[in-house]
Amino acid sequence: MFRPLELFVGLRYTHSKRRTHFISFISMTSMLGIALGVTALITVLSVMNGFEQELRDRILGMASHASVTTFGGKLEDWQGLSRTLEGREHVVATAPYVRGEAMLSNGKSVSGALLRGVLPEVEGDVSDVMSHIKRGSMELLRPGEYGIVLGNELAFALGAGLGDRITVVTPQVTIGPTGAMPRLRRFTVVGVFDVGMYEYDRTVALVHIEDAARLLQMDDSVTGVRLKLDDVFNAPAVSRALSADLRGDYRVEDWTKQHANFFRAVKTEKRVMFIILTLIVAVAAFNIVSTLIMVVTDKQSDIAILRTLGMAPGSIMVIFIIQGAVIGVLGTAMGVAGGVGLALNIETIVPAIESLFNVKFLAADVYYISTVPSSLHWNDVWVMASVAMVLSLLATLYPAWRAARTQPAEALRYE
Fold first, then answer.
1. What pTM was computed for the model?
2. Domain edges within the chain
3. Percent of the chain, pLDDT > 70?
4. How far apart are CA 4 and CA 13, in angstroms?
5. Burial of 294 (0-12, 13-18, 19+ CB in 10 A)
6. Predicted pLDDT of residue 1
């Protein structure tokens, strides 16, 4: 089979026996360094993707994909708006809500809370809170009965359990004979939810939308309408389209805006980790420089003979670039195989290690996410493999250039 001369010689140098095993050891070290770096890069970023996905799912368990409100804070014809929104492309379901701040008290325990009025029969269409009820039931939220469902941490802070009656105090006031008095109402705890996000479990309390509207003096209006979309990642585009099309004093927000700081911090952390781990790959890749320089020194006479036979300096460069590229390709391939294997099986490997050494990396009583999730993104894998290959090729340029500058007469003088 015909092969170009540069490729033949480059591959021959790669696997030929050397007069010293030290060069082979450095080559193997460089290859393993690239493999370990790529493996670590793929595994760590997959775990970070897994945590991001887990947190996003927990956030969207309470938050909607998008919401439509008014700048005045009261949405009157929400039924008509819901019908309009449900007819839009990508909108799967809608649900109205009433939101307000309140102070909850149970005996001597007092805590601030975000009071959210919902329709139990449609709330499950736009959020996953129904599946996170630990005690009681959302179906017990009936208009006029003033039931309330508390987050697990909020119930613990108040010392409240099922059947307990707590007092809800709102900022709105009622003018009576004694002057302005805050509006308050006794509610019965009918459920406790636990979505695994402290922000919600500690601050959110759910009541029937009619009870919330009556307590907050909203009459027949609501705060807004929540939307569920067919693709959570399409929320920004759908929100922009709705903002442009809706007539009136409407404001459209999606989940990426409501939690912008959090997801921006996660993205920044992933970028920093990518840079740090890429430096590990870079260190291993640039070990190729020392390997090839020693090979060039070892092969001075061979280079001189090839030059004497008429091989151009550019061809000499290609020979050593091929040799370094082989190290980079093999190291990258080993790293990709190891990283993908770890990323796909991390949820099995970590429990096995915990069981073997009797340790717990993420204790359930300390962390809300007690397992190590992993989400492998193939785009990340190709990017990491490409970066490793580019760094390996860059590392070959200087040694190959030095080999091309070899003078045959000088190299053969003492042979």
1. 0.72
2. 5-58+262-412, 66-258
3. 88
4. 14
5. middle
6. 38
